[in-house]
Amino acid sequence: MALMQCDFYSETLGVSVSMNVILPQRTTTQIGMASASSGEARHPVLYLLHGLSDDHTIWLRRTSIERYVASLGIAVVMPAVGRSFYANMKQGYNYWDFISEELPALARSFFPISDKREDNFAAGLSMGGYGAFKLALSHPDRFTAAASLSGALDARFFIEQNKEEASRIFGSASDFNGSGNDLFELAKQRAAEGNDRLPLLYQCCGTEDFLYDDNARFRDEALELGLPLTYEEGPGEHEWGYWDRQIQRVLNWLPLTKKES
C-alpha cells in the first residue's frame, strides 16, 4: 500500500486543508502483509470520515486500516472537516459542498480513483457516521453503499446538548428539522422515490454507547421505510476498540466487485 499526506487548497472553503490517502499497490515481497490492486485503471474508493473531536489522521492512528484494506484493492480517502458536522455551516464554512462536491473531484484529479457509482463508498464513526449516511442518502446516484459506526444519526441530540455550537452549524432546531441535514427526512425522501438504486446501508452501535438510543430510532425508521439496512449491535461503548473491530466488518460487508486479485 501507498500512504500519502495530501495538503491542498480548497476553493470552496477558501483555506488550505488536508487529507490522508491510502492507495492500492500490488506487492509480492512485502513482509507481513500481502497487498493487492484491483487491476483496474482507477481504484474503488472508500471515503472514511472522522468524528467530532478528531481529524484526517485519526483512522490511521487508532486502527490498522491500511493493513485491513491491503488485500482489497481499494483506495481510502480520509479528509479533515473540523467540527462542521459535514454541513454548510450557518456561521462558518461550506463543508458540505466541500465534502460532497469539491473533495471527490479533486481526489479523482490527484489520484487514480473511480467515479463509478458501484466503486464509491462512504463510512465513518460518530459525526462521521452521520456524514457517511448523509453522503449516500443525498447522492444515491454516486454512492452504492455507506456505513455508520456509532453514528450521531439523530443530530437533534447534538443540537439539544450543544445549543450554542449547534446554532453556528445548523441554525435553530426549526432550521434543521426537515432540512437536507436531517437524516430522517433524507431517508423518507429516498424511500418515497422508490428507487431500486438505493444505497446499501450498514449501521452498528454498541449497546453501552451514549448514542445507542439515537441509533435505535434511526434503525426503526429506516426499516419501517424499507431501506436496505444491515444493522448490528452488541456490547460496546463509544471508543476505538469497538470501532477498530467494526471497521473490519464494514470492509467485509462492502459490495466490492473484486475482493482480491
UniProtKB/TrEMBL annotation:
**Domain of life the protein comes from:** Bacteria
Residue span of the signal peptide, if any?
none
What UniProt keywords apply to this chain's record, in alphabetical order?
Answer: Hydrolase
- One example GO MF annotation: hydrolase activity
Query: Which PANTHER family does its entry note?
Result: DIACYLGLYCEROL ACYLTRANSFERASE_MYCOLYLTRANSFERASE AG85A (PTHR48098:SF1), ENTEROCHELIN ESTERASE-RELATED (PTHR48098)
Protein name stated in the entry? S-formylglutathione hydrolase FrmB
The organism named in the record is Paenibacillus methanolicus
